[in-house]
Structures are given as structure tokens and as C-alpha cells.
């Protein structure tokens, strides 16, 4: 007879002899495990049947261990043994020791039962017994498992408990802080104090982490938008150490995903060469991971892309719906050319979409499907999308709107009229969007949905009502959501003074509760949108005071962004300027920039240049040198040098107003590399001074600006005594808030700087130049005459 202890040896115990199936497997590297062989072995079926017959005789610990190990051996959740074990465990739930409860919670998560009744009961037990838990592993495992069910009150209790246990646990147990970060990611709550404490422990463990662990941690950081320079630099160094030992498909894939996006060009080429050698040995999911990383690093190795695509092609039957969407997107963005493969992918996407009942899945499949060329859209797809729209959040609705816009543009019949199926979809989208805004009653949930909203549909159909909704909920603005609200207003370029006044008030009252790094987001809309709330000086002063004691703890790139935002607002804290413009800081910034995505890298370099320029012009007493001459020259070479038809029109009019086309220069580069749309010089009698032909810029018929012999700043010959340089700038819609004619901060800063450089600055807003009042040649010329000559000394 097969005894209970033999089953325990087979499934559960690490200390009961040769039958320790899972114990032996977990000791092996991933690539050497033989789980599928065990699962298909006839004696394994016998063991499962015997175990099922003995479930009631198992004690609590054995029962949960049995379920855990059965699932580790890839027994399907629908298998009768797994179901019987879950049912029995549910009956005993309230008497489990906390260690077994946490393991059972993991089992439920493995079976996608995060929202099941037993998980709800586990959440209740955790709430009741939280104070008695003193094991960080048990707590963090439970936190991750119940994350989809926690209330804000329980969330705060869990965070406080986790924070306490971090101080008492063994710091070498890095999975505990990793799970805490995972919990924060799951609940979409970037609680900086806990994140930083977790990061401190993880940073200490980097020398002992493998590529898989580093990849997991960096993925969590990325999804929660937590950037830490020290961790990234340490992780990069550790990954570089692991390059030589990562020669098998499993370990190389983990290394490539983590290191590829922050590697230098030489290392990228080396990684791509290794990937090419291993390509044929990649399994379906490794090929997917490599393809997504190739897209992220903008790989142009056609041979490698072809090989990865070939592996994908052979394994299309393996992928789940979201994986098919991800692989299709990666191949499209890699500009891979294969009509046969994309036709298959499209058919699979459509089939998955027609069968899906999950809104998030239908959204992703639809978005990727819209990226593929298609002359006609299946009616079945339209019906499926229309059916799921009422269940979608605002972000998903926005995704559908962008997909519909692409389909409309690509439909051959669009030239004549918008097909009724698209009109119907857009009407449903509009109705669902407005209904969701009207029913919104929780600001935090609304801000989460609005986090990535952008595009024409949102701006034209929902933005105004969104602002009405946010004002209706403004009493819920608190120190916890002030940064998110401020970022949303900045991103939309929408000046809503009641909301900004409320943000300022809450920030000033609660500045010590707001994390010092969040001061950047808090101040950003006031600087960018050029809005001064009541007590604006106090707001900026207390935020700066909050920052200064922690200045050395800032990530370099974030400190640059903060300093630039303050510069836009004409604010230059001495401590901040001194911290940034020193050799050690700039060296660390350079190192960090190498680990950042290319777009963010370019943005930070541009902001540093603009900050350097602002400090040189507005704070000469700080004696910061101008060290961006070469950078600006390189930027200038990359620009196409064309001007818009409106600017060509203004240039012609200026010639008539000033007495000749050679009295106005076009696209002039000033000292510190501002590009002035037009420059003219007026003598002491306010008469225009003509430029020589050599220094005059020519405009070709296609709007291209052609330089004479002069270069940056070198054509700024001395003006006659008493003469005045005049800079004429055309301000397009980007210089103003979207909902008003209020000028934004950067346009105001530019005006300040040009005046410091000696210009009388004339700004021509687009809404004035294109107004009905200026509809004749004479009206335009009179407008320019008044603008240029009014206010001259």
C-alpha cells in the first residue's frame, strides 16, 4: 500500500528521501529541469490519483505544500487533484499558520484566482492578523497575492508594516524588498519612502544578483516610473560582468533584456552577435523577449531580425493573445518586411479579438491590429469593439479612438465619406467617454485613467469635460495626488486656474509630507504654463527649501529638470546652481545618461544646455561658464533650416515696412544659439539699417534658408551709435496654453533672454496675425509697423 509519507516524499518534503520531485527540480538550472518528462511519466499519474484519495488525511502544512509543489510541476489548475486540494484548503483557511496561508495565496495567484472568494478571505485574515506577522517573506508574499483586493486603509497599514520589517530583516534577503516594489507596482502607488528604502537594500545586493533578478527589478522600476541612477549604474556594471558567463539561451535572454537598452554601441554589437549565434536555439518566449529588446534599442541588424522573426514564425501556435500583440508590434516597429508573416499575424489577431471577453485584451489587440495595413475592416471586429466599449476606462477608450482614426484614414472609401461603421464607433466612443466622466467620483482613479491620455480625440471630445470633472472633485486633491494632478495639467497645456490654485494651497500646507523629489512635478505647471497663483513666491520658496537639504539625493537627470523648470520661472537657487555646475555632478550625469532611453537622453542634454544658457544670461555673478558651443553647433547641423509659409509672408511684409528686403535677416542665430525669426536694426532716428549682401540670408522657393558667409554670432557687427537691434518672433500655438491666449513660460523666458542680449523683442502671436482684422496687405503692414516702432526708446 502507498503510504501518506511516501506521497509527502514525492510531492512535499525536502527531507524525506529520493521521491522529492520538485525539490530536485528547483535545485537545477532552468534549462536542465525535466518537469515535462515527470509530468508525462505514467507513475506520476498514479501518484496524483493516490494523493487525491488521501487529501482528507493530510495535515494543514502538508496540504498546502502538496498543492504548491503540484503546481510547480505544471499540473493544470483544471486537474481534479489541484481542484480538490484548493477546495480542501479553502475549508481550512482560517486555521492555517501564516506561512501556509501565504503559500496558499501564491497557489491561488498561480491559478489566476486573485479575485476569488478564498483570496478575499485571505485578505480579511491578513487585515486581522497583520500586527502578529514578523516574517518579511510571509508578509511580502501575502502583499503581492492580495494586491488587487486591498483597500486604501489596508494599503497604508501594509506599507507601514513592510517599512518596519525592512529595518529588522536580513538585508541579504533581496526578494523581500523586490516583492514590496512589486506590490507597489500592482496597486499603482509610487510611495517614494518605501521605494527608496527597498532600493537601498537592493542596491547593496546587486553584486550578488544574476541577470534574471536584475531584469525583474528593472522591469518593476520602469513600470512604476522609479528611476534611480545608483541602481542603474551598479546593475549595468554587474551585467557587464555576467556577459561572458551568459552563453546559453535562457541566461543570455535575461542578460540581453536587462543590459541591451543601456549598453554602449560596442556592447550592443557584441550582444547582437551572440544573439545571432543563439537565435535558432531560442524558444518562443525567448524570441519574443529578444524581439522586444531589439525594438527598444532600435536594432538595424537585418540578419538578426530575420532569424528572430523565423523563430517566431515557427512558434505562432504557442503564443497567447497578448503575446501575439506584443510580437506583432515589435516586428512592425523593427520595420520587418514579410507579407506572409504579417498576414498570418493579422488573422491570428482577428481570431483572438473575436473570441476575447477581456476589455484590456480587446484594447491591446485592436491597437496592434490598427498598425497593420488592411484595406477593409471586418464587421466582426467592429461589433466586438463596440460591445466592449461600455466596460472600458478612459485610457482604453482613447486607444480605441486612435485605432479608429487609423482605420478611417486607411479605408479607400474615406475619400468620399466616412463609412457608417466608423461613425457609429466614434459616436459610441464619445458617449462612453462622457458617461465615464460624469459618473467619476474618485479623483485618484480618475488621475490613473488620465495618466497616459493624449491625442486629438481626447483633446477635442473630452478635455473640456475632463476639466469640469476634475473641478467637481477638487476637494479630493491632497498631498498624495498633487504631483499627479500637476503633471496632468502640464501635459495637457490646459490652464485651469481653480485647480492650480488648489494645488498651490495644498502644497503649501503639506510641503513636509510631499516627497522632496515630487516638488519638480508640483511646480512644473506653474513654470510651464506661466501662472502665478496667490502666494506664488511663497510656493516656490517652500518647495526650494524642501529640496535643498536633499539635493545630493536627487537623481542627476531629475535635478537638471527641476533646475530648468525653476529657470523658466525666473528662479535660480544658488545651492542648486552650484550643485549642478560642478565637475563631479556633470560626470555622474554623463554616466547616468548612458543608461537612459535615447529620447530621454536627448531631452536631458537639451535641458542642460538651456539651463546653462539661462544661468549665463541671468546669473552672471555665479560665473558658470558656457560649455555648450559644440553641442549647439551639432544641433544646428541637424536642423533642416526651413521656415513656414507664414514666416515667408512676414518676411516679405517686413521688407515693405522697413524699406527693403535686405533690412531684415531671417533665422538669425544669436550668441547662446537662440534662433530669431527676423532681425532688423533701427538707427537713432528709427530708420532701418540695410545689411550687406554677404550677411543676408536667402530664402529659396521651397522655404529653405540659405546662409551667406557669416556664422553664429560672427555676423553681429557693431550697430551704429544709438541704434537698436529688433528681434521679431512669430509665436505659433505651441507658445500658448491650449484653452486661452495666455503665453507659456518658455516664450516668456526667451523674451527675457533676448532682451538681455540687447534686443527690442517683438512677438507676433498666431491668433493676431491670422485674425479677421488683419485680412489685407495694408492691415498686416500697419500691424507690423505698430509692433516694431511702439515702445522703442
TrEMBL record:
<keyword id="KW-0496">Mitochondrion</keyword>
<dbReference type="Pfam" id="PF08368">
    <property type="entry name" value="FAST_2"/>
</dbReference>
<dbReference type="InterPro" id="IPR050870">
    <property type="entry name" value="FAST_kinase"/>
</dbReference>
<dbReference type="Pfam" id="PF06743">
    <property type="entry name" value="FAST_1"/>
</dbReference>
<dbReference type="GO" id="GO:0035770">
    <property type="term" value="C:ribonucleoprotein granule"/>
</dbReference>
<dbReference type="GO" id="GO:0000963">
    <property type="term" value="P:mitochondrial RNA processing"/>
</dbReference>
<dbReference type="GO" id="GO:0044528">
    <property type="term" value="P:regulation of mitochondrial mRNA stability"/>
</dbReference>
<feature type="domain" description="RAP">
    <location>
        <begin position="726"/>
        <end position="786"/>
    </location>
</feature>
<protein>
    <recommendedName>
        <fullName>RAP domain-containing protein</fullName>
    </recommendedName>
</protein>
<dbReference type="InterPro" id="IPR013579">
    <property type="entry name" value="FAST_2"/>
</dbReference>
<dbReference type="Pfam" id="PF08373">
    <property type="entry name" value="RAP"/>
</dbReference>
<dbReference type="InterPro" id="IPR010622">
    <property type="entry name" value="FAST_Leu-rich"/>
</dbReference>
<dbReference type="GO" id="GO:0005759">
    <property type="term" value="C:mitochondrial matrix"/>
</dbReference>
<dbReference type="InterPro" id="IPR013584">
    <property type="entry name" value="RAP"/>
</dbReference>
<dbReference type="GO" id="GO:0003723">
    <property type="term" value="F:RNA binding"/>
</dbReference>
